[in-house]
Amino acid sequence: MIEINELHKSYQTGANSLHVLKGINFSVKEGEMVSIMGSSGSGKSTFLNILGMLDEADEGTYFLDGKPIRNLNEKVAAKYRNQFLGFIFQSFNLINYKTALDNVALPLYYQGVKRAERTEKAMHYLEKVGLSQWATHLPNQLSGGQKQRVAIARALASDPKVLLADEPTGALDTKTSYEVMELIQKINDEGKTILLVTHEDDIAHMTKRIVNLKDGLIIDDSIVTQVRADEAQRKAAAHV
Amino acid sequence: MFDIERWQEIFETIGKNKLRTFLTGLSVASGIFILVILLGFSSGIQKGVKSQFERDATNRVSVRTRTTTKSYKGLNPGRYIQLRNSDFTEINNKYDNELEYKTAIYNMWGSQVTYNGETGNYRLEGANPDQQWIENATLVDGRFLSQDDMDETRKVAIIGNIIKKDLFKGKDPIGEIISIFGVNFKVVGVYSDPGGDREEGRVFVPLPTSQIAFNGGDRVRSLAYTVKMSDDFDEAVALSAALSESMEQDIKAKYSVHPEDRSAVRVDNTLEEAKKIYSLIAVIRNVFWFIGIFTIIAGVVGVSNIMLIIVKERTKEIGVRKAIGALPSSIIALILQEAIFITAVAGFIGLFLGVGLLQLISPMVDNDFIKSPQVDFNTAITTVFILIAAGALAGYIPARRAARIKPIDALRDD
């Protein structure tokens, strides 16, 4: 699904250049659930941005579902993002004057899907994240966990190949985090490829593979035994 | 443009910022309002001045004489130059091809006109039948002077509307006998003149009759002509100027008047005057457009400014939209459409208010130089197009900026 070879990226900050990614080799197969870890400054956000076509690498190759991602113009990039990727952000990034349903329907709107079909699909995904009764609510009427669920539904709406989640639980408390992770795990169970950036160990262990980044290089890449979020939650509850 | 979703989004953002949108709209609306009022008045001035010229034919050339002010060829200044019937015939013969209507005038100011015990002082003008066209007089009743009146030196008179009102008190004057300085004339016609009361306070009688009845001999006071009009206004102006120049030279040569003596022989040509005034009106109109356009520009800059702020505020949102697949063109359309919408709605409000106000005050404006200030349909359409162009202009820069937003920068959590 994702094939990356010798990826380099540096940023120009005034006079000095900052070499952020120093040759990354990385591949993800379909249906995998990978977490990318690393301290701040390790380059993990830059890596995710390149994966998400929000940023472009200086060197190296990147294939997404067999398509080379290189020198895309804005139009094509927008199309690819819409087709291949679903984004989940730490701060949800919902459009606050649109209802939950309209937010979920937005990627479909940009795909050119007709209004009736759009609403139907969006409703389907809202149901999937368990928020169908909240369809007509505005984001500020929802809790943090609910907002993130709406965001997940939106990421799923365009039926992308890969879900990219940037600290999806970063703004949530532990209980809500586990609920959101439970949902993400469920989506992965259905076969969706998921990449997740986090700095929390427990969240990382809820994925199936952990990639550790340090100073722009992958220092560790290992398969882990997945901790199911619902079990973790039960355990946590038992502790209290 | 007819994307319901996009309109919804525009109404949503406008609804969220009512005051801001209102203030922006106000600047555009007042810009258009001022432009419409200015244009209305400029067309009012145009109409007013045009009606001033309508008093007489616009292509009129008139010859008047006074006393000389410069000595010439051994002759002293202070000599009165008297035009005679022969001058009229000579000029008629010489310029027959260029002239359309011709009349010589023998006039007497403050002539005492009496009818049935009512007396008034009016201007008497002995003239040729062509006088009707040269004066731009409209016959209300009866007939104007005829060649037979001239040939037979009939004692007939055509009176102005105001004289009819003053002396006849609503009675039909046709066929009645009036007395001018004790000489009886039969009224055969009544005329009106676009020049109003001042121009209607005259009595026209056949030129030979007036010369015989009032001791005129072969003397005439002035000559008046109209020049044949060509289709091209500038050409007609040039022709009329050349003609009057040439006539002036002829008469000056004949009576040995210094060529530089402006007051002894005066040949005025209305067309040249008209051209001057018309070009003045054109200047006024341009100035009004200029002021109006800049007022609109000020409004448009306001809209542009607001849209920039909106883009700035919505940076994150635009970033999100791009991340989930919005094309740059759809972002541009969103911003552009909102800007056009605000300017168009506000502009139309300003347009209607302006037109409405003009309609309201138009009947109240009664000035010699401003007549019924109004904007015509074409002008209104022009302003509408200016509006839409202005809206597009106002939205373009902010829209481009929005399209350039990089999602990665917009989504950075800080």
What does this 3D model show about the protein?
By secondary structure, chain A is an alpha/beta fold. Chain A is 38% helix and 27% strand. Chain A has eight helices and ten strands. Helices cover 55% and strands 19% of the residues of chain B. Chain B has helices at 4-16, 18-53, 85-94, 131-134, 147-151, 161-168, 197-200, 207-213, 233-254, 270-313, 315-323, 328-361, 377-404, 407-411, and strands at 60-65, 83-84, 99-115, 118-127, 138-142, 156-160, 177-180, 183-192, 202-206, 219-220, 222-227, 265-269. Chain B has a six-stranded mixed β-barrel with strand order 3-4-9-6-8-7. In chain B, a hairpin with a 2-residue loop joins strand 7 (177-180) and strand 8 (183-192). The longest helix of chain B is centred in the C-terminal third of the chain and has 44 residues, at 270-313. Chain B is elongated. Classes of the chains: A alpha/beta (240), B alpha+beta (414).
